[in-house]
Design goal:
The structure is a single chain. By secondary structure, this protein is mostly helical. It contains 13 helices and 3 strands. It has a 3-stranded antiparallel sheet with strand order 2-1-3. A hairpin with a 2-residue loop joins strand 1 and strand 2. The chain is elongated, with a radius of gyration of 34 Å. The termini are far apart. It binds heme C. The site of heme C has 22 residues, from helix 8, helix 10 and helix 11.
């Protein structure tokens, strides 16, 4: 009996002293002396903070700074806040055409009806170039200068990515052809039947002996090249757009974005392909 009282007393005494010791700190935010403190408060490792820790040593200054606000250049695509630009860069929402219903077993989609007049129009609309041309007009001493900024930029892209095969004039006689190292590059003038979207597709994924340019050019750059190819095919391609931008009275300079698209011509080779496919079904 005495043993039991002593044991209970001992346990109580220990408990009381733990509580007393626990409250023996001046900092009111501290939970007091702790047994295995790390169990209660693990060191706070914040994401997006570089602790500057190298082999156990910490750089106190770095530890106070947020380091990961901006991802390193090129790691995460960021297209700015301009809705038009963002739309252009995001995966494009093209509806599958009616053939997909049969070839890919896709059902429940709103396939355009091939029997309706609108089908051809819709099909072309899906593949129109969505990139508006940026045109600048400036006036100096009575002389008005017009510049197509989109084509000027495309010219640079073309010179570094395409010209060695396709040639400066787009006739398929680039230095690679002339050296005899390569063959089979078409003249753009023979490709007027392609829709804007088909040209985009061939540049993006490659075609035949031409490799894919998906890793070299972004969507905006490819669409600007589609405009550039149209210009090879038709020197007046951007004429109306250029003339549509005018200076207001007293204005010295202006930059405007103008939509320019080109529907494939009636003797379109793809249209024929589609028709053939239809016959086969
Ligand atoms: C290595 C040489 C080479 C380079 C570089 C190259 N092309 Fe081509 N390109 C070809 C060849 C070859 C074809 C013909 C492919 C075929 O029809 O089989 C072709 C075809 C095309 C076509 C027609 C596609 C079609 O659907 O019929 C377009 C448009 C085109 N190239 C644009 C470009 C643009 C724009 C660039 C630069 C970004 C480029 N090419 C870079 C060799 C090249």
């Amino acid at each position: 009996m005495k043993m039991k009282v002593r044991l209970v007393g001992g346990v109580m005494l220990t408990a009381i002293s733990v509580v007393l010791f626990g409250s023996c700190v001046s900092d009111k935010d501290s939970s007091g002396l702790e047994y295995m403190p790390d169990m209660y408060r693990s060191p706070a490792i914040e994401p997006y903070v570089d602790y500057g820790q190298i082999r156990g040593r910490e750089d106190a200054k770095l530890a106070m700074e947020q380091s990961a606000l901006t991802p390193p250049h090129g790691t995460i695509p960021y297209y700015g806040t301009d809705a038009e630009e963002v739309n252009l860069m995001m995966p494009w929402s093209i509806k599958p055409n009616y053939i997909f219903g049969r070839t890919h077993g896709l059902t429940g989609f709103d396939f355009a009806d091939p029997e309706e007049d609108t089908y051809e129009n819709d099909a072309k609309a899906w593949t129109w170039n969505p990139l508006k041309m940026e045109i600048s007009v400036t006036e100096k001493d009575g002389d008005v200068t017009r510049k197509n900024l989109t084509l000027a930029n495309a010219k640079k892209l073309y010179a570094s990515n395409c010209m060695h095969c396709h040639g400066e004039k787009g006739d398929g006689n680039g230095p690679m052809m002339e050296s005899g190292a390569y063959s089979g590059v078409p003249n753009y003038k023979d490709k007027t039947g392609l829709s804007d979207g088909q040209i985009f597709y061939s540049i993006y994924y490659g075609k035949g002996m031409m490799g894919s340019h998906a890793s070299l050019l972004n969507k905006k750059e490819i669409w600007s090249l589609v405009h550039y190819i149209r210009k090879f095919q038709d020197a007046d391609y951007d004429k109306a757009a250029m003339e549509s931008v005018v200076l207001d009275k007293g204005q010295k300079s202006v930059i405007k974005k103008v939509a320019v698209t080109s529907a494939p011509t009636a003797t379109d080779e793809t249209t024929e392909e589609v028709e053939n496919e239809e016959d086969n079904i």
